[in-house]
Specification:
The protein is of the alpha+beta class. The protein is built from four helices and six strands, in the order βαββαβαββα. Bound molecules: tetrahydrodeoxyuridine.
């Protein structure tokens, strides 16, 4: 896991050993997630969230949370971005940046969104951000260890159930 104190100034990368996106790309992706947050429809929680996904071919697909008067129908920003991306033909992702209005803590994706990300692999990067652009970089696997994914459905089952 990397923590970068401010992506707008001199980067302070605590784990230099990790290789990933360039600082420029990370900054762009975080900016796109902050822009997406502006479209959040959250009249009930008033908790704005934006997400920006970077696809394998370097397209950026954004999403925001969209709530509903029937509360349980609300959709998180991350899931919204992923559903948009899949519906446009993308299934391979390099990274997702997530933005909220938290200035003192990194936004952390909910369990449902972690599972939704995991559907498309466990090795890609998740940038949890604060409003100043600083971030914590994690992988899907770090956010959801020992996860259940599509491969598990094809694992050999006991003969009793075959
Ligand atoms: N929310 C997200 O969009 N992503 C998350 O990972 C955490 C929560 C949204 C859902 C709801 O609209 C609001 O934030 C409050 O939970």
């Amino acid at each position: 896991m990397d923590v970068v104190k401010s992506s707008w100034g001199v980067a302070d990368i605590e784990n230099q050993s990790s290789r990933g996106l360039s600082q420029e790309t990370v900054k762009m992706l975080i900016c796109r997630s902050q822009d997406a947050k502006k479209h959040a429809y959250c009249p009930y929680s008033k908790f704005r969230v934006g997400a920006a996904l970077l696809t394998l071919d370097n397209s950026v697909i954004t999403g925001c949370n969209v709530e509903n008067a029937c509360y349980n129908l609300g959709v998180c920003a991350e899931r919204n971005a992923l559903s948009k991306a899949v519906s446009e033909g993308y299934r391979s992702f390099k990274a997702i940046a997530i933005a909220s209005d938290f200035c003192d803590q990194f936004i952390s994706p909910c369990g449902g969104c972690r599972q939704f990300m995991r559907e498309f692999g466990s090795k890609w990067e998740v940038y949890l951000t604060k409003t100043d652009g600083s971030y914590k970089k994690m992988t899907v696997d770090e956010l959801l260890p020992d996860s259940f994914g599509p491969e598990d459905l094809t694992m050999k089952k006991s003969d009793r159930y075959s």
